[in-house]
Design brief:
Length: about 230
């Protein structure tokens, strides 16, 4: 599913963010990415969907080599990868339905297919009844659910979640985690960067810990660790 081999990332200012990472993530896994602030987690995540390119090394997702990918091919890669952000990134002038449908419209999906698929994923995230609402009429948790619906409407093989509970209260965060678990149980690989110690220590999954750009711990049913 995902394989990194001897990956390095140095930014133009000289900061070495990723320092020789090699890792393999299999289809259907649920993996937490943890570590202190400035450890390289965000760069690690961004390289997965080609927001950042490695300075050296190889990254392969679903058999596609990311370092050799041409810029015009990047949108096709991202259609196969769902991304969930901490700040939702919903389009404010579109309804819930339109925000989710947009992900299918841009790839030319026939209108007859769009309606059924959008309503199906809104049902999964329990927001079918708010399909005509706008983002500013929703709570933070509901907005994140819309973001998740949008990320899975293309049936991606992997969902990358970057601090998906970071802006949410504890009760809402647990609801988001139950949703991500359900998506994972349907066969989708989940890769989640998080600072939420309680979630990681309660919902035990594989934990990859990054410090100073290196993987320092990779445990099948790991714990969060001593990070802020």
């Amino acid at each position: 599913m995902i394989e990194m081999k001897d990956v390095y990332k140095t930014y133009p200012n000289g900061v070495l963010a990723i320092n020789g990472i090699s890792v393999k993530i299999n289809q259907g896994e649920f993996v937490y990415i943890v570590g202190p602030s400035g450890s390289g987690k965000s760069t690690f995540i961004k390289m997965m969907y080609r927001e950042e390119k490695p300075t050296k090394g190889s990254i392969v997702i679903n058999g596609v080599s990311l370092e050799n990918l041409k810029e015009q091919e990047v949108p096709f890669l991202r259609r196969k990868i769902g991304v969930v952000f901490q700040d939702f990134k919903l389009l404010p002038k579109l309804t819930v339905y339109e925000n989710v449908a947009f992900a299918l419209e841009v790839i030319g999906e026939p209108p007859r297919n769009i309606k059924k698929r959008v309503l199906d994923v809104l049902d999964l995230v329990q927001l079918k009844h708010k399909a005509r609402f706008f983002p500013d009429e929703l709570s933070g948790g509901e907005q994140q659910r819309v973001s998740i619906a949008r990320s899975i409407v293309n049936n991606p093989s992997v969902v990358i979640a970057d601090e998906p509970t970071g802006n949410l209260d504890p009760e809402t965060s647990w609801g988001i985690m139950r949703l991500l678990e359900e998506i994972n149980q349907r066969g989708t690989t989940i890769l989640m960067a998080t600072h939420n110690k309680e979630i990681v220590n309660t919902i035990r999954k594989r934990v990859i810990a990054i410090e100073d750009g290196k993987i320092v711990r990779d445990e099948t049913r790991g714990e969060y660790g001593l990070y802020d």
